[in-house]
Automatic annotation (TrEMBL):
<protein>
    <recommendedName>
        <fullName>tRNA uridine(34) hydroxylase</fullName>
        <ecNumber>1.14.-.-</ecNumber>
    </recommendedName>
</protein>
<dbReference type="GO" id="GO:0016705">
    <property type="term" value="F:oxidoreductase activity, acting on paired donors, with incorporation or reduction of molecular oxygen"/>
</dbReference>
<comment type="similarity">
    <text>Belongs to the TrhO family.</text>
</comment>
<dbReference type="Pfam" id="PF17773">
    <property type="entry name" value="UPF0176_N"/>
</dbReference>
<keyword id="KW-0819">tRNA processing</keyword>
<dbReference type="Pfam" id="PF00581">
    <property type="entry name" value="Rhodanese"/>
</dbReference>
<dbReference type="InterPro" id="IPR001763">
    <property type="entry name" value="Rhodanese-like_dom"/>
</dbReference>
<feature type="domain" description="Rhodanese">
    <location>
        <begin position="125"/>
        <end position="219"/>
    </location>
</feature>
<dbReference type="InterPro" id="IPR036873">
    <property type="entry name" value="Rhodanese-like_dom_sf"/>
</dbReference>
<dbReference type="InterPro" id="IPR020936">
    <property type="entry name" value="TrhO"/>
</dbReference>
<dbReference type="GO" id="GO:0006400">
    <property type="term" value="P:tRNA modification"/>
</dbReference>
<dbReference type="InterPro" id="IPR040503">
    <property type="entry name" value="TRHO_N"/>
</dbReference>
<keyword id="KW-0560">Oxidoreductase</keyword>
<comment type="function">
    <text>Catalyzes oxygen-dependent 5-hydroxyuridine (ho5U) modification at position 34 in tRNAs.</text>
</comment>
Length: 254
């Protein structure tokens, strides 16, 4: 049994290029596989390995000398896999750890209101709340929350166009958004706040945290949650749904 860890944090990493090789070597030394993205704005990725190796990796990011305490607020979500869900290790440099293409969207300056998974049902069933799925269309097709709006986008970079065309600050006073692990909502909520939207909420820890802590009998989630590794999708309790061909996944939660 392997431990799989999805993680991210927005943090100033002006030396991100110099961090690539030390981080790759550290992960390789622990026999970890998966994808890690480094950018000036932070880190994002999903990796897998033994439980001890994952714990050592998380400790190094949060408390080790490599990042010097700059990643002490990591969003971590761990699950398990019966088979190694990645074919190799990749550590890549990017302009953004999740690509939106809006300089005004800066989660280190402003972000929406985090909502705990246990409080999510009450928020999305409120009649004055617009529930918004920020993921790509193929992900939404596999599963989503009851009553959620599908932006019908092929990539997250198209979200700002959807917002400009379909969302109105005067009309949509209360927006609750969600994504797989939370990172896309960080950018999306920051984008909407910069455009003058008054109340923007997002599911802390994303769908994965909701499926982990909310009992299926109380769940408003319908379908399966696509994940960016060979397990393809997870269900309630973060149970594996299936496998797919190796090396055709994506890095992190994009």
């Amino acid at each position: 049994m392997y431990k799989v860890c999805a993680f991210y944090q927005f943090a100033a990493l002006p030396d991100f290029r110099e961090l690539r090789e030390p981080l790759r070597a550290f992960c390789a030394g622990l026999s970890l596989k998966g994808s890690v993205l480094l950018a000036q704005e932070g880190i994002n990725g999903t990796i897998a390995g033994s439980a001890d190796a994952i714990d050592a990796f998380a400790h190094e990011l949060a408390h080790g000398a490599m990042f010097g305490g700059r990643l002490n607020n990591l969003e971590l979500k761990c699950s398990t896999a019966e088979a190694m869900p990645f074919g190799r290790l990749k550590v890549r440099l990017k302009k953004e750890i999740v690509t939106l293409g809006d300089a005004a969207a800066d989660p280190t300056r402003q972000v929406g209101i985090y909502v705990d998974a246990r409080e999510w049902n009450a928020l999305i069933t409120s009649p004055d709340t617009l529930v918004l799925d920020t993921r790509n269309a193929f992900e939404v097709a596999m599963g989503t929350f009851e009553g959620a709006v599908d932006p019908d986008i092929k990539s997250f970079g198209q979200f700002k166009d959807f917002a400009a065309q379909k969302l109105d600050p005067a009309k949509h006073r209360k927006i609750a958004m969600f994504c797989t692990g939370g990172i896309r909502c960080e950018k999306a909520s920051s984008h909407l706040l910069a455009r003058g939207f008054a109340e923007v909420y997002h599911l802390k820890g994303g769908i994965l945290k909701y499926l982990e802590v909310v009992p299926e009998a109380q769940s408003r989630w319908r379908g399966e949650c696509f994940v960016f590794d060979e397990r393809v999708a997870l269900g309630h309790g973060l149970q594996e749904i299936g496998l797919r061909e190796r090396d055709k996944g994506h890095a992190g939660d994009e």
